[in-house]
Fold each of these.
Amino acid sequence: MPTTSSPTRSVVIATFATVMLAAAVAQGFGRFTFGVVLPDVREDILGGSNSLGGFVATANTFAYLVGALMVGSLSAKVSAVNSVRIGLLFSVGGLAAAAAAPNTAILTLAMISMGFGGAAIWIPSPGITSAVVAPHLRGLAVGLTGSGVGLGIIFSGQLNGRLVANGGGWRDVYTVHTVIGLVAIALVFLVLRQRRSEAQPAGGFGGFAVLRTLDGWKPIIGCYFIYGFGYLLILAFLTSRLQDDSGFSESAASTIFAVTGGCTIFGGVALGRISDIIGRRWTLVGSFPLWAAAVGLILTGELALVIVGAVIVGFLFGGIPSVIAAYLVDRTDAATYGPSYAAATFAFGVAQVSSPQIGGFIADWRGSFTLVFVMSAVVMSSGALFAWALPSGS
């Protein structure tokens, strides 16, 4: 994605910092915090049901799916920066509603608002940051953008652990997130400016008309679909698995979740840069089987192995989508990135819609999360086949 000017160093830094904070609100807070607080939410207003917890998570991902369709379809009318602004309004409104939710229905509506907002924020974000760096640093730029999500996750894990230790609860977590979200709204309106050259053409319904013109669009969608289904089985239920099946304390489980988030920060940057050097295809071919191996370590329940597995999962959780986004950045320009990535995200969203519900149902059926994690390992392994099918040299 070529740049249209050479922004000053201060503009580049301000752009990255603002977009990373928006990404933290969109994903780290709006999606993955629910996995951190799920054990408490489950006992407080979900009647102890993992299936109901999966339903609430599914509502969030379904809204993300709808948001992806709308972002792709409206790319000609809504600029990338305005999309982020609108998304933050939905996300922060959802965070505030979650903090005050008295029952499952209100919590579900809050998660829907966060899901829709998350799509509107995240989809244009890599394009915004990639536009202010040199072409040979695109993978690194996308990775840095995604590291905002990891920062949000590690913050959520640590915040939840400390609040619980001091008599707080899951509502307090969402309250703090709401305050940070308000700061993000202010910064996005003050810092980000839409360039005329970044206006995007109509990409057809959901952006698919643009996506289908790209080389290797089918296998890259396959990679994103596999990732969308497999990763959420782990992230949505990691703390529940550690507490319910492995006997970890709530504080320990939250800390390990925070470790996962912390590694996400480095995973997006490292894998993005590695893919700049060895190629997107080979990076993805190796990443999917490595995820399966990491899940196997978590399943042992042994603290040392669980930590290693959590580190690898966090690394790949941030890295794989960064490489996928970079692949699309390589094959688009400022005019076509938005609709093409929105269309790819739709496939990702379809996978996400089903996985939390399936995972919650299986956990209730089997009385543990073991089979859920095994499913993630098997599904993610198959992603290497799609990666292998990407064009040679990509």
Note: Residues 9-192+200-388 form a domain with the Growth Hormone; Chain: A; fold (CATH 1.20.1250.20).
Amino acid sequence: MKRIVLAALVVGGLVGCATSTLPTGGNVEQVDEAKVAAIERAAARSGVKVIWLRMPTKTAPADGG
């Protein structure tokens, strides 16, 4: 039983590391508003409702430029 719990903790830790973002040297992740708008327009034309689980992002300079 201890092995199963230990294995679950190790796998959970690896999944967390695999999904974390690394520092990008002065860049930040922002929601890609243009992509979101394009997808929502296409969905509306097709009569489909979009439920965002993870918004599309883009990398932008941290200084806002």
Note: The chain is about 50% helix and 15% strand.
